[in-house]
Amino acid sequence: MDDAGILRPVLQVIEPQWVREGAGVKLRRSIGGASLDSLDPFLLLDHFGSHNPEDYRRGFPMHPHRGIETVTYMLAGLVRHKDSLGNKGEITSGDVQWMTAGGGILHEEMPEGLGGHMEGFQLWVNLPSELKMCPPRYQEIPASKVPWLNPVKGVAIRLIAGKYGNHTGPVSGIYVDPTYMDVAVECGDTFEMDLLIGHNAFLYVFKGGGLFCNTQIESTRLVVLGEGEKISVTGGLLGTRFLVAAAKPLREPIVR
Ligand code: MN
Fold first, then answer.
1. For residue range 191-202, what is the model confidence (pLDDT) as tens digits?
2. Which spans in 200-243 are helix H?
3. pTM score > 0.90 for this model?
4. How far is CA 209 from the centre of its chain?
5. How far is the CA of 107 from the centre of ligand 1 (A)?
6. 12: CA distance to ligand 1 center in Å?
7. What is the distance in A from the centroid of ligand 1 to the CA of 122?
8. Is residue 3 within 8 Å of 225, Cβ to Cβ?
């Protein structure tokens, strides 16, 4: 986190596509769609969010997952979930659910707005072949365990997984050693961070805009980063907010 280090270049800027998923939930898909099939080990990134309950109230009735991990991070409203093993609960604003589906799980995920508003993300992370049949596992992290940190002026981060300076995110024991965080940068201020060499990485810009690794980008866009040592983001006129995700690629064939 100093001036040294090679900035990761912007390789690709992707406009998310609107799709309907589940029983008709309207969402923006940026990984797992036509523009970007996958970014090893990330198989999918969906951004759901609306002020109109008709866009989400029918939810995601019982459906299976196997051989992957699904990561749900909520910004507003909530998702009620229950599964074939008898687990149930709700993920509300600021909460994270990291579900390792492993050998297989059936579950439903039903969104609800708060004052009509519901917003969040679901990321799918691939598992290596030797772990695809592991027992299902949940890590449910309440918002209180993912505090906003203010490392430098005008920068706020929520570290979900991975390391930032002396901080370690609450999600642990994940094979691909992921970095996953939510970052807000005010106008004219700059966020810098080292990312492990060899990890595949993307940014997902969902508010405002700014200078992302020397490229001007406005929301809503997914930014695929190339190889390098660090990232740098300077907030534009309205500031910006984005996800940072990075992980060790599995380099195995993907079976959908
Ligand atoms: Mn699901």
1. 999 999 999 999
2. none
3. yes
4. 18
5. 6
6. 28
7. 9
8. no
Copy the structure tokens of residue 55: 């866009």
Ligand 1 center–CA 108 separation, angstroms: 6
Q: What is the pLDDT of residues 160-172, one digit of tens each?
A: 999 999 999 999 9
DSSP label at residue 8 = P
Between the CA of 169 and the centroid of ligand 1 the distance, in Å, is 23
Distance separating alpha carbons of residues 162 and 220, to the nearest angstrom: 24
State pLDDT tens for residues 33-90.
989 999 999 999 999 999 999 999 999 999 999 999 999 999 999 999 999 889 999 9
How many angstroms is it from 109 CA to the middle of ligand 1? 6
DSSP per residue, 84-145 = TTS-EEEEETT-EEEEE-TT-EEEEEEEE-BTTBEEEEEEEEE--GGGTTSPPEEEEE-GGG
Q: Which residues contact 184 (CB under 8 A, 6 or more apart)?
A: 155, 156, 157, 207, 239, 240, 241
